[in-house]
Q: What sequence folds into this?
């Protein structure tokens, strides 16, 4: 169990706690203002944080570590994410019944093609807030292109994302309110992965689960190697041998499973694997 489950989930998975999606939280003026500013100032803050990370590589290690820890504390209070497997996303949609497909700010400002892999997930309508935050994007995404999805449509979108090796992650906006599911990989320009995986500045924490590989069922085809967004699986050492799963590098997104025709990959709770139980 991660710290967020203890703080915001009553000891259960924090992103399945209905109170974290409550309309009362969304309606708080400070939170609505934060969400508008988050979208409006996204590119400016993206460039500022990336510059800070580049500078951190040039300062003494203790100073860089202290700066990154301060950044992580700040993000835990305001805006953080965690990978969530497909079946848990489905459970989230049972609570967050207002699902809006919207353009991805990360892809937009990283100059990547935008194919609509971001979802605003709330209980009450949120399109007005999204339009206000993205109104000044200029040549950015079409703010009139928000699409309301039902649960089946949202799940179909997430399955298409998995086929492209995109992991699902759930996000707070002024913690503990949860307002989005993103579907990303490093190549898409994802800020969370760039900062957390690329620079060690934690904006995202590892998932509640970790992958396990049944080596007796694995055919060594390598499909999971290509699918894993965190590069946690290596190709077989020799022809006919099983793939090599490095659990220490697994973030628990579960995307690898959708590539495995032999169903050799599964997820178990991170706490049940001693080697990675405390790795978040």
A:
């Amino acid at each position: 169990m991660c710290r967020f489950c203890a703080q915001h989930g009553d000891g259960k998975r924090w992103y399945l706690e209905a109170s974290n999606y409550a309309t009362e939280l969304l309606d708080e003026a400070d939170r609505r203002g934060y969400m508008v500013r988050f979208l409006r100032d996204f590119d400016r803050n993206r460039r500022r944080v990336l510059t800070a990370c580049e500078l951190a590589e040039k300062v003494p290690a203790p100073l860089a570590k202290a700066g990154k820890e301060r950044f992580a504390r700040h993000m835990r209070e305001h805006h953080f994410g965690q990978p969530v497997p497909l079946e848990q996303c489905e459970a989230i949609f049972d609570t967050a019944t207002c699902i809006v497909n919207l353009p991805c700010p990360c892809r937009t400002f990283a100059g990547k093609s935008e194919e609509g892999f971001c979802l605003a997930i709330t209980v009450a309508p949120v399109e007005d807030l999204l339009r206000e935050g993205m109104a000044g994007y200029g040549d950015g995404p079409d703010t009139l292109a928000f699409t309301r999805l039902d649960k089946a449509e949202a799940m179909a979108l997430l399955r298409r994302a998995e086929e492209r090796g995109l992991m699902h992650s759930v996000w707070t906006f002024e913690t503990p309110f949860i307002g989005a599911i993103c579907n990303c990989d490093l190549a898409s320009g994802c800020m969370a992965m760039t900062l957390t995986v690329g620079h060690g500045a934690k904006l995202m924490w590892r998932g509640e689960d970790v992958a396990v590989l049944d080596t007796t069922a694995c055919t060594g085809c390598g499909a999971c190697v290509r699918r894993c967004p965190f590069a946690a699986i290596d190709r077989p050492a020799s022809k006919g041998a099983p793939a090599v799963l490095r659990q220490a590098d697994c973030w628990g997104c579960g995307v690898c499973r959708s590539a495995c025709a032999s169903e050799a990959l599964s997820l178990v709770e991170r706490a049940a694997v001693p080697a990675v139980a405390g790795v978040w």
About this structure: The mean pLDDT is 92. The chain has eleven helices and ten strands.
